[in-house]
Design a protein that fits this description.
The protein is α+β, with helices and mostly antiparallel strands. It has five domains: about 1-40; about 50-145, Jelly Rolls (Sandwich); about 185-345, Protein Transport Mog1p, Chain A (3-Layer(aba) Sandwich); about 465-515, Ribbon (Laminin); about 520-590, no CATH class. It is about 20% helix and about 35% strand. It has nine helices and 40 strands. Strands 15-14-13-26-25-24-23-22 form an eight-stranded antiparallel β-sheet, covered by helices on one side. A hairpin with a 5-residue loop joins β32 and β33. α1 (about 5-20) packs antiparallel against α2 (about 20-40) and α7 runs antiparallel to α8 (about 425-445). The longest helix is centred in the last third of the chain and has 27 residues, at about 395-420. The termini are far apart. The relative contact order is 0.07. InterPro entries: Lectin_gal-bd_dom (IPR000922), Lectin_gal-bd_sf (IPR043159), Mucin_vWF_Thrombospondin_sf (IPR050780), Ser_inhib-like_sf (IPR036084), TIL_dom (IPR002919), TILa_dom (IPR025615), VWF_type-D (IPR001846). Keywords: Disulfide bond, Glycoprotein, Signal.
């Protein structure tokens, strides 16, 4: 339609309007239909990857979509009017032509993104009215993206609650657990913290001060390769006898024993290993302030290398779980109350001949003043969900009010216990700060970042080339995997984050050029690390050779002496005298044989 034709039509319509309003409305409708039909005919086809356009006139509703299972990706959306001819209305031809709703793109994406089709309405009740009195329209630009592949590498397609990582394997989205293929499940969560307090799978809090070795959580089923046992060893510290702390955590799974020890040392079947450590069945890595073990069955065990241990397991195991953590069926009344029955053989590095009988200890009852002081101390009070004072955790309280209350009670308990033992200053502050850190981690599990530490309230010291972060990736970049953060499905956590240009080598932040070596089994060794062969005859070291890091032989040794054998001791292979023998294990050991009497 030329400009002259259009002007002539307007003149005719003006004359008609003077005599017959109904006829005018019909003519306008016909013209509107004609013009928009012509525009629709000129729109590009539904070719994947190419921009497609859809115009919806005010008060109309239309469907946009993709063929062959393609998914909609919205690139632009405008509700308003940017020209005179789109959705032509001759009565409003010279209305505002420079108006658009600021919420257009967001609302269209919320309705259509990643769908095969969607319904859109061009109405001010949906987008707001950017220019009253002007006839508006909705113009959408989108592309059709090929659907997600039905497979993830060599595996079938991932579970709906999982993502495909590197087209290699499926991972459940946090906080769910599972194999990512057959299922992703809500988790059962148990924590041992402080001195020590246990928050059980079903949510109840227990104070248990035994110093033996105990089963924290266990799932045992004949023929199920996902069976596991998590054990904890507790100890007294610094002469304080009323309370105990978690010294180490042992995990027995896949015919393997993993020990998470103080200072974040890790042992696998007795051998000291370096992080990250990976096998086909499990992975161990640093995550925030914790060392984290995760198995292919969804079991997650974390230890902060000081006193706090966390166990997470898919709730499909709920009724079959035993140990101090109890089962996981939302019924706290059917859990065992005699926790001493979960004592196991102590094979730790701090064995006691006799474990004392655990007696009930109620430190706040011994001096009510201590309880009041604990509730109002600057550290504990930030955890109180009943306080009317604004707290850094206020947002987290909305989701974890009950558990926050339990952790607040633990903090007050710890304050009373240490005051009873006459502990003051840094020792007491460290214990209370650890309690708050436990709540911070719980909030992070729920996707809530809490920036609670300050220069005067529980500052977290960090090592060289790192700094404190309240929202660092749960999967930090390492010498083994520098792209780990980009593939991480876990929520952000607090901890010591490597500075720009540095990555984790075991527990240290180093430049990439200072990263260590990987052996034939895929296990990592920091630069300079020495390790001994299983027969104690060869010492190897991760060394810089030119521009490469290589494992080289540094020393060869004679076999162990007579009556000596090569065994793991403190995580390294070394020659030791056999039982009932003594002497130099390198030169030979002597001893008296036991003679059996007939």
């Amino acid at each position: 339609m030329t400009r002259l034709n259009l002007l002539m039509l307007i003149a005719v319509l003006f004359n008609i309007s003077q005599t017959n309003g109904n006829l005018l409305a019909k003519v306008i409708g016909a013209v509107d239909h004609r013009v928009n039909g012509l525009k629709a005919a000129l729109l590009p086809g539904h070719n994947k990857g190419q921009d497609q356009h859809k115009v919806i006139c005010e008060s109309q509703t239309k469907i946009i979509g993709c063929r062959d299972g393609g998914l909609i990706k919205i690139t632009n959306a405008v509700y308003g009017r940017l020209n005179k001819l789109t959705c032509l209305n001759l009565l409003l031809l010279f209305s505002n032509t420079n108006c658009k709703s600021s919420s257009s793109l967001e609302k269209v994406r919320n309705s259509c993104e990643d769908k095969t089709h969607c319904v859109l309405s061009a109405r001010s009740s949906v987008f707001g009215d950017p220019c009253p009195g002007t006839n508006k329209y909705l113009e959408v630009t989108y592309r059709c993206i090929p659907p997600v592949p039905e497979t993830c590498g060599k595996f079938p397609k991932c579970h709906p609650s999982a993502v495909c990582v590197d087209n290699d394997h499926c991972e459940c989205k946090a906080p769910n657990q599972g194999d990512g293929i057959k299922g992703c499940y809500p988790v059962c969560w148990c924590q041992a913290s402080g001195d020590p307090h246990y928050i059980m799978f079903d949510g109840q809090r227990v104070d248990f001060m035994g110093t033996c070795k105990y089963t924290l959580s266990q799932y045992q089923k004949v023929g199920d390769t996902c069976s596991y046992a998590v054990e904890v060893k507790n100890e007294h510290r610094s002469g304080y006898t009323h309370v105990a702390y978690t010294r180490l955590v042992d995990i027995r799974v896949f015919d393997t024993t993993i020990r998470l020890h103080l200072q974040k040392r890790v042992y696998v079947n007795g051998k000291l290993v370096f992080l990250p450590y990976r096998t086909a069945q499990f992975e161990i890595a640093l995550s925030g302030t914790y060392v984290r073990l995760e198995t292919r069955c969804g079991l997650v065990v974390q230890f902060d290398g000081a006193s706090s241990a966390i166990v997470q397991v898919p709730n499909v195991y709920g009724n079959d779980l035993t140990g101090i953590c109890g089962n996981c069926n939302n019924n706290p009344n059917d859990d065992q109350k005699d926790y001493s029955r979960y004592e196991v053989v102590d094979d730790s590095d701090l064995q006691l001949q006799h474990c004392k009988k655990v007696e009930d200890f109620h430190p706040c009852a011994q001096n009510p003043t201590f309880k009041t002081e604990g509730e109002t101390t600057s550290v504990c009070r930030v955890m109180d969900p009943t306080s009317t004072t604004q707290s850094a955790f206020s947002e987290c309280f909305k989701s974890f009010r009950e558990t926050a209350g339990l952790l607040f009670s633990s903090c007050v308990y710890d304050y009373c216990a240490f005051r009873v033992d006459n502990a003051e200053g840094k020792t007491l502050e460290k214990v209370l700060c650890d309690d708050v850190s436990d709540l911070s981690y719980l909030c992070a599990m729920g996707g809530i970042t809490v920036k609670w530490r300050t220069s005067t309230l529980c500052p977290l010291p960090c090592g060289p080339n790192s700094h404190y972060s309240a929202d660092m990736s749960a999967c930090p970049a390492t010498c083994v995997d520098r792209e780990a953060p980009s593939k991480c499905t876990g929520n952000a956590v607090e901890g010591c984050e490597c500075d720009t240009g540095y990555v984790l080598s075991n527990q240290r932040c180093v430049r990439v050029a200072e990263c260590g070596c990987t052996d034939d089994d895929g296990q990592y060794y920091p630069l300079g690390t020495k390790f001994v062969s299983k027969d104690c005859s060869v010492v190897r070291q991760c060394t810089a050779v030119g521009n490469e890091m290589k494992i080289v032989v540094k020393e060869t040794r004679d076999p162990c002496g007579t009556n000596a054998e090569c065994k793991l001791q403190d995580g390294q292979y070394t020659c030791v005298c056999k039982a009932r023998h003594k002497g130099d294990p390198l030169k030979g050991c002597t001893g008296t044989k036991v003679v059996k009497r007939l």
